């Protein structure tokens, strides 16, 4: 589901990068087709953002973010200028509606706009609107299910302005949670029987927010966000050792902290993270007809915090693993494998955005 921002100049597979702009930084991924339905990772890079440049998915400082995008593009070594961007799920209203099958494109657009006006709390001329025909309705094959996505035009325009200021050409705007699912679907397809009938819970633990998606047979059956993220651990480090926020963030990643850090600061944080995951799963059980989860996937920058995956597995008593979106991909000669291993879970959204090139 994406807002199409222009044609690919008639070239279906022109090189295209996925660019994920989050609260903590920007991440870039370029993939290519390696043949035999395999992908190759050509380039990846990340660049931290100053605090306050992006808040709750809103761009607060276009210049700072555009500068970070310019740096990440240069650092990555890519030559590609076409870009897919993501919108935070909280900025996008999505709604599934049922319409009669066999409508012309024009009638379909008219019906979608009419329906959308009921669900969207803004004037339609302030909104970027897109829709996707999902397919026939199960019990009513003459009707089709249509997914509508709408977001404020200004939010799209901010992201377009950033890409253009960095010398890039935005082609597609996707929803970040859909991009994450695209990347995860590829990994699930590598499991025995392609993961059929299994219920997977994806926890993307970001700086401020954890996004939860529960998937079954390629469909999202549950989705929500919880205000919890790695910012809490950074703040604890700032308070305990009197460091600046930036220094605390850097030392959190390298583990270069005083003795006693693990016991006094890290372990309590891991416990509260595992508690958040457990609560979210309980909430899923009480608010849906489902009563089991077969596997938990952790993604986002926080997923690689030492000990998190084990603490969550022990607390939930469920198989838990850290997502590596590049698993099973070929790697270009310039890709640094050790760095990739350490950072991969943070690239789930950027990887899914980059995969739009092959749609």
Describe it for me?
With 359 residues, this protein is of the alpha/beta class. The strands form 4 sheets. A 7-stranded mixed sheet has the order 1-11-7-2-3-4-17. It has a 5-stranded mixed sheet with strand order 14-13-12-15-16, covered by helices on one side. It has a 3-stranded antiparallel sheet with strand order 8-10-9. A hairpin with a 2-residue loop joins β3 and β4. α1 crosses α3, α4 packs across α10 and α7 crosses α8. The protein is globular. 38% of the residues are buried. About 2% of the residues have low confidence. This is Pilus assembly protein PilM. Pfam families: PilM_2. InterPro entries: ATPase_NBD (IPR043129), FtsA/MreB (IPR050696), PilM (IPR005883), SHS2_FtsA (IPR003494).
Helix content: 25-40%
> What proportion of the residues form beta strands (DSSP E)?
25-35%
Shape: globular
Largest beta sheet: what is the strand line-up? 1-11-7-2-3-4-17
Mean pLDDT over the residues: 92
Largest sheet: 7 strands, mixed
Helical stretch count?
A: 10
What does the radius of gyration come to? 21 Å
Question: Based on DSSP secondary structure assignment, what is the total number of beta strands?
Answer: 17
Summing up helix and strand content along with how strands pair, one would put the structural category as: alpha/beta
**How far do the termini sit from each other?**
11 Å
SSE order, one letter for each helix or strand? EEEEEEHEEHEEHEHEEEHHHEHEEHH
Unreliable segments of 5+ consecutive residues: 5-11
